[in-house]
Design a protein that fits this description.
With 110 residues, the protein is of the alpha+beta class. It has a single domain (2-102), classed as Alpha-Beta Plaits. It has 2 helices and 6 strands, in the order E-H-E-E-H-E-E-E. It has helices spanning 10-22, 53-63, and strands at residues 2-9, 27-33, 40-48, 67-71, 89-93, 96-102. The strands form 2 sheets. Strands 2-3-1-6 form a 4-stranded antiparallel beta sheet. A two-stranded antiparallel sheet has the order 4-5. A hairpin with a 6-residue loop joins strand 2 (27-33) and strand 3 (40-48). The radius of gyration is 19 Å and the shape is elongated. Bound molecules: ligand 2BA. Ligand 2BA binds next to strand 5.
Length: 110
């Protein structure tokens, strides 16, 4: 069994979650925030039998869209005589950041 930890952009979450539910996957959805951009994203924890791992990865690829974001770098401290306009920096945000962990034990305790 595997545990897939997938960080996706918030706007991709609904279609992906719908597709996972349609196919009967069990998962937990956690609202999270990207450490770099400080934007809302979503972290999914999906526990699956190893044989079904490729199907989940396929859904992540299908619904996780890569996008370019522009970020304003922090303005340096400027002397009064200087004038400095910082240009936005292009940041490429991938469709999904995926970690696959081997699960030692899985139980649903009733
Ligand atoms: P953020 O941390 O907000 O990062 C958004 C995008 O900014 C990243 O896209 C990457 O292109 C860029 N970025 C991140 N850290 C950077 C840095 N130190 N210097 C320059 N550019 C940087 P992705 O790589 O597609 O990551 C999307 C989101 O996935 C991340 O949002 C973060 O929440 C999560 N993530 C990415 N790598 C991770 C890792 N190794 N561990 C845990 N979470 C990760």
């Amino acid at each position: 069994m595997k545990l897939i930890v997938a960080v996706i952009q918030e706007r991709d979450a609904d279609p992906l979650v719908g597709a996972l539910l349609d196919r009967g996957f069990f998962f937990a959805q956690i609202d999270s925030t990207g450490g770099f951009l400080r934007e809302a994203n979503v972290t999914l924890l999906v526990g699956v039998q190893t044989a079904l791992l490729p199907e989940v990865l396929r859904l992540l690829r299908q619904h996780g869209q890569a996008r370019v974001r522009y970020v304003n770098p922090l303005m340096p401290i400027v002397e009064p005589a200087e004038f400095h306009v910082a240009s936005p920096v292009e940041v490429y945000v991938g469709g999904a950041t995926v970690f696959v962990l081997s699960v030692e034990r899985y139980e649903r305790v009733a």
